[in-house]
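ingest -> validate -> predict -> emit
validate: passed (alphabet ok, no gaps, 402 aa)
predict: started
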Amino acid sequence: MPTTAEIIAQGQQVLIGNYARIPVVMTRGEGSYLWDNDGKRYIDFFAGFGGTILGHCHPDLIRAVTEQAQTMWAVGNTFYSTPQLGVGEWLNKSAFPGQAFFCHSGMEANEAAVKLARLRGGQHSPKRWKVISFHRSFHGRSLAMIAATGNPKVKEGFEPMTPGFTQVEPGDVDALLAAIDDETSAILMEPIQGEGGVNFYPPGYVAKVREICDQKQITLIFDEVWTGGGRTGRWYGYQHFTDSSGKIVQPDILTLGKALGGGLPVGVMFARPDLAKLLVPGKHGCTLGANPICMAASKTVYDVIDRDDLMSKATVFGEHAIARLKSERSIATKIAGVRGKGLFMGVELKEPPQKLVEKGLERGIIINLTQTKVIRLAPALTISKDLFDQGLDLLIATIGGL
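emit:
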């Protein structure tokens, strides 16, 4: 077996260095544990950027993809196939009546959503093609989604930006209204900003955005790549928002990724039928979208979360974690705030830490840092209470040691 140093050296030769890789080689996972090439065990408190929402090597996922791989590996989308139908049914059951387009990632789903919004906008005169998103947002790294993302660092080196995208300050209704013109086709927003630091909107703001979209016939797109799939204690993050009558604020288009494949590449654009019908043959596609193996995994993710009531568990665990972190005296002087919904949390530090992720790994916990000083936590929904508390102990020790 090659040594860790040998694997890293080979990786540096044959892999592009577009990731800030840490010199650790992961070789095995089970539940919320990962083991590296040297046999060290870690508690996974980030679940592969939220992707392994059922943990590593979940037996139901193994069974589903094995059975599907032995039945049909892949088939072109010019044919119907049954595995994707189960996911489509779950989307209709858990979200709203609509139709699905399957792809590989949340970024691709966002691209498809913007294209669909422009098709709708093309029915107006003048044609509507512009998209408004928000400062500190993140929607992917394609050229169009870089332009949609509200983080200047993501844009660096890729100028000039793809035209038609602008950002406004989230929570500022006047700024949003000022940005809308006769060519505005869509508003693109995350129910909770993930890469931006687990940020929330002021009360009532999302309902106001929905109201504005209805008044001006603008398509409202919710980017649920981080918040979809039960992580926040609801199937989708938008389900936490209600209008003045108590009705849930529903998007016109919903985009999903990360957790929906349980660790396999699945992206979904889910749209109201009256919009979905505009995406006729030749307007969009994805060669391996709705791959039967990926679809078998995705349906199983829904099935397991529902069967094991994991959304209720996410709510309870998240509330427990936030209360504990807020009350922990040993780190009180180092924390500026703790926020989150379910098992999607952000711990904002007062000062940017040095090598925080590496220090966490030394203690045996996998965490993430975004926006220079926000610790982002997104463990698998299947994590046990004992292991969750052990992870919180390690997190507190890591912060305390800064």
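The mean pLDDT is 97.
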